[in-house]
Amino acid sequence: MTSSSASAGAETSSTSSDLDRLAGFQLRLASTTMMNDLVDALAEVSLRPAQFALLVLVGENPDISQTELCARLSIKKANIVPLVAGLETRGLLKRAPDARDRRIQNLRLTSKAKTAMGEWKTRVAAHETRMLRKLNPRERTQLLTLLAKLRDGAN
């Protein structure tokens, strides 16, 4: 257990509260616990969760535009510019103008990012295993299905 997840667990009480019956509040607590552990898992490779997500999507969708990334990651356009610039400075992303519309910047992983992606994904998989260890495979699938329903229902 990481220091951040240990402190979150130490604050848990067995006393029932009205908050225990609020799905949004429980999702927020679970999200905080998951994200704290993910931050710890990626810290040794100097990545933040948003950077990892962006790099995975670019790897899966070479020549994706920054606008499409914003939509897929639910990030505001103003926030993606420094994120992309930082990854480009680190030699993990490269930008190229779109062949049809030179105003559009398409993104690709560099060979450095492609080489490191396996390690990054291994770290995230270990994080997922650690954090979801109390769920059996059917429950994990059910959790992802329910979360997708909640996410899609908001749109």
Describe this structure in words.
This protein has 155 residues and is mainly alpha-helical. It has a single domain, classed as Orthogonal Bundle (Arc Repressor Mutant, subunit A). The chain has helices spanning 3-10, 23-43, 49-60, 66-73, 77-89, 111-131, 137-153; strands at 64-65, 93-97, 105-109. It has a three-stranded antiparallel beta sheet with strand order 1-3-2. The model is unreliable at 1-10 (pLDDT under 50).
Entry keywords:
single chain; 155 residues; mainly alpha; Arc Repressor Mutant, subunit A; 3-stranded antiparallel β-sheet; 8% strand; globular; disordered N terminus
Task: List the topology elements.
Elements: H1 3-10, H2 23-43, H3 49-60, E1 64-65, H4 66-73, H5 77-89, E2 93-97, E3 105-109, H6 111-131, H7 137-153
Antiparallel strand pairs: 1-3, 2-3
Brief digest:
The protein is mainly alpha-helical and 155 residues long. 65% of the residues lie in helices and 8% in strands.
Report mean pLDDT, rounded to a whole number: 90
Sheet with the most strands: spatial strand order: 1-3-2
Shape summary: globular
Helix content: 55-70%
> What's the order of the H and E elements?
HHHEHHEEHH
Beta-strand percentage? Answer: 5-15%
Beta-strand segment tally: 3
User: Architecture, according to CATH?
Assistant: Orthogonal Bundle
Question: Could you tell me the radius of gyration in angstroms?
Answer: 18 Å
- Terminal-residue CA separation: 35 Å
Structural class: mainly alpha
Which blocks of ≥5 consecutive residues have pLDDT under 50?
A: 1-10
- Write down the CATH class: Mainly Alpha
Count up the domains. 1
Which homologous superfamily in CATH is the superfamily? Winged helix-like DNA-binding domain superfamily/Winged helix DNA-binding domain
Quaternary structure annotation: single chain
